[in-house]
Records
---
Amino acid sequence: MENIQNKQSFRDWLKEAVDSGKSASYRADPIITSTDSAVIEKTVFPGIDVLTSPAEAFLRSLGVTFFVGLTGNFIVPSMAEDTGVFYGEDVSAASASMATASLTLAPRRVSHSQAISKETLAQTSPGIYSGIVQNLMNGLWNCVTNDLFDNVRVDCTSTNEKRLGTNPTWTDLVNMEASIGGKFMGSPAYVITPAMRSYLTTTAKMTNQGPIYENSKINSYPAYAVPAQNANVISFGDWNRSCVGQWGPVEIVVDPYTDAKKGLINLTVVGLFDTGVYNKRGIVNFIDASTS
């Protein structure tokens, strides 16, 4: 048996062994780390490929408006919907009296980091690196999504935009829809928490009727159950009236220097984002009175 560490390759060593009549066997160095932590299972991956994060995909499927490539503060105007009138001959049109409002989006830094040991990278395929980068990206978009629903809860507070109660009923939800029913909406949908989904799945619309939440719908509208929604909040409306602003691309910073003496490589994702509701008239919340 011979250690082939200094040979060019196993293939070269094997040829030499056959030509010289040596026994065709060798000892491979074991895969170890500087600690006694478990060895990560090796899997072959095609390379680094960061996929769309589930939270970002959800926001886009919901119809949230994205403003990308922004520079400086971005002001989004909004105003109440108005309807024109057919007037008789020689009659002046009345003023629409549109009171404009605005939402200012300003860049805010979203970031988090992960250190990877060189031993970890040495004992695995590039798939482990890809997985860590993907998790960092997922975490960044989780933060952006959480922030949007925080703003939806805080911003939509007028009479038509906020309903208080406990143990939401079918009537509560229908009244929510009615409060904004006079507005044209592109793709209205409900957003609830997984816990609220469980409650609505086991709560009947009325006596001897089916559950409020059924087949991922509430009253025929799509209903999404996501952890980003605030606890005990049900939101309904046209999500195109909410928005995400992004300044430049998301950066992945690889730093092999700061913790070089520890054998660590630091990965950091950094993005500049802001979120908000630029037209609050199209979204309404039911909020548990005990949490309002």
---
Amino acid sequence: MQSRGRFQLSRTWVFFFGSLSITSLLLYFLGISSFVSLAVILFMLEAVGLVCFAIAAWRKGLDDVLALLWSGLWAGALATLAYDIIRIPVAHSGIPVFKAISYFGTLLLGVQSPTPVSEILGWAYHLSNGVSFGLMYVALFRTPRIYTAVIWGLTLEAVMLLTPYAEVFGYRRDAKFFAITFGAHAVYGAVLYLALRLWNGLRDFQLRPAHVVAGVICVVLGLSLIAADSYRSYARNLPPSPPAYIGPHLYTSWDVPEPDRIVAMWVTRRFVEPQASFYFIKPFEAIRYGRPFDVPEAEIRRHGLRSATQFLLDQRGLNSDTKLNTLARMTYLNEVTPWMLASDAEAGQLTQRLRLAAEKECGQSMNGNCVERLFQELDHFYQER
């Protein structure tokens, strides 16, 4: 009785640790923190937790617990490979079904478009989710059944559809999307069941951890081929990566590096909302993430004869600061009366300084990384006497 209770407790811990990988994505959708912070922290907790759990089980001679872990890893890896293989014809038909995996990598690496390194990271994260789902299944169900495994696969996708998964990664919710995604998850569940049946059938042949490792290596090789094919076909044409953070402190603005926009963002970050994060789109694109900033529908924007910076300073009661007023005057001359800019030497020099910095750091389009360097330039200006 005591042994049975201990095994049930072990299942609970396996389920908990296995759930941490996908939890990072769910928390990202909830806007708790950036995806890279959540993914790295929770993956490390999962990996370390499972390794420590396995070592403890090995030292205590808990063969049933070790078998639970190895079978979940084995079956989860094989089911993930099958899940992706079944989608290859869809990808070759012109539908970028693997782009969410590419975006996992761009979010982890902090780049706008897929690179070979970001693809490796994205597919590694994808595999960690697939393996973790396998561990969660064997922890939930003592005896694998085809119907429980398929329902498990479909449930995973149903839960994801309750989140903004499709919207964040740019999938259109239509009949084709639902057919593809539910069909692939049904295959995941079916292969998960078959892999566990195979595992149980081969236990009499003294399966060892080396067999599991060999199976996972084969899965990695298979996924690498699929990833390379997807990267070759779609990497250059994917829209820019979603923002690394999609919580309440996210603002979306146009990517044109105008002085007024740059200064208003810097004032927001430095004096109003230190947690503020900025995401950039092409002018007049639809805003899918965050709150509008310095665009026609935004609260913080040019209002009549006031630049966005002036409006922000007035709104927040920051217009008594001499340095900020200098920046506000410069933005007014650039935004409202550009023909008078030449008559104000200080504003003209400051404009030139900011434009040169923007050209050097961002070129023609702003992104999250280059804007941080522009903020540093404005920090230097603010600290100057």
---
Amino acid sequence: MKKNKQNINDMDYSSFVGLIKERNRPSGGIKTVHDVAINALIDKNKKILEIGSNTGFTSVNMSLLTGCKSVGVDINQNSVTESIRYAKENNITKSVKFICADTRKLPFKDGEFDIIWVSNVTSFIAEKESAIQEYIRVLRPGGTLVVVPIYYIKPVPDTIINEVSKAIGSLVEKWDKGYWLKLFIDTSNKQGVNLELYYEKDFKYLDRTNIIPKYVSDIIDKNIKDESIEIKAQINKRFQYFMNLFNENLQYCGFSILLFQKRHCVEESELFLSRPVENI
């Protein structure tokens, strides 16, 4: 894994994760995995495709939790390699597989999966509608599309938007929750498919400024063994940069767990809705 200083400083975040082998959990971490497992009724009989599986956390832990069969797809080969190692470490290679593939042309049959998990990966894809069409294509009728989008809940400075876009190597815009809901539903309608939202739960992010230095140090000590002191220092600096930037950005953000069912037919809209009562 020999990297020079220039390469490290030029890496976008997706490539950097593959280098440092950060587990890179979904928003909400393991609690999100549990929440989805319960509300999407995932069990050992379900077959899941995670798109943008990164270094394998969600696919591996969903399989450990439920016994389901899981396939993870990512465009970064280093991340796929680390995901395979992680599955071996957890002794579940018979139920979890990882491959390198392009989201815009998934190597799977129509309706092959019971669950499609895309978390926030659609933010990183320029051709969003094309990607969503592929998500829907490989999901069986009656199956669940799991989306965990990050979006803005208050005004964010353009300087932060521009810096985040550069850091992840993809254009970020001032998307709100409504943008993501409309994008998924409108794209499905254009395909003649009905996606019905049956579960949603909203969250805000905590400020983790004080935790970042130790987190970065722990990950590097665990995963970067064979590099020089100079290269480790460069990795530490780049890692701290990403984490501080993302933490700053997330203070303007929220995220949601959204579960859509792919319906056989279009149902009439619901009129009398409700919301949980927080204080009685």
---
Amino acid sequence: MIAAPPRQTEHSRYAWRGALVACGLNAVGLPFDLLLGREVPNMPVWPSLASGAAGALLAIVLLVGRRRPTARLAMAVFMVNTAVILVALWITSGAYAAAPARWIPFQANKIGALAAAVLAPDLATGLISISGFVGMVLLRYMSLPVAQQQRMPIGEPWTILIYGVFAFAILAYRVHSVALARRVLRMRTESIATQRLARTFLALRDFTNTPLQTIELAAKILRARCPEVAPVVDRIDRCIDRLYRLNHAFSVYESQIEWTEKEVSPDPSVFVEH
């Protein structure tokens, strides 16, 4: 018999894929931010490069363990990746805020919150990551000089709260959808297993019907021709009765089988030893 795969296998692979995509976005997206801020005075280069390198390194860690992924590793990598991004954004946002030209603040945090809602391995990791992107914006805003705060567009930085609400809603919906899909898959698997068991029981019933009828007929002939063996025949009749009751119990499973036009009843010959 082939051993069933662990219950967490599908969940682990799902979490692994989400963490891998998040690391890939970090490895590509943060260095790309350097191009957008190339004209910003005093823009530090190392935070974006370090964050991108960390994303690439974390992606390699996941790829090394791709044959036996675990949800715990995926969650840990996702959290580390998010922390590295937040550190880089904290530093680069200060340079953007001090630049003479106006900027649309904290766009990376808004995108990060939505990405976390879509890619987080589980509910807790998603909640923490989204809260990190939202909370960093509010703390960074409070740490800026008043002059830089006043230069921000109307509604900033409070629009991050709207993004946070949408991100939480997307995360909750996704987690619920995944849980529902797993429940449906489990019910479908159980239904297939039940039908296989029902087919086996019906095959056993069909296989034993003819021998039982033969034994019952032989017992009647024996009772009629040899009255002196009546006690032995009575025991045979009781055994036959018990087997018929067992067959009746097997018949209950017949209603659980979904027959199609191409299907035929089970072949009882599978129970015969060749």
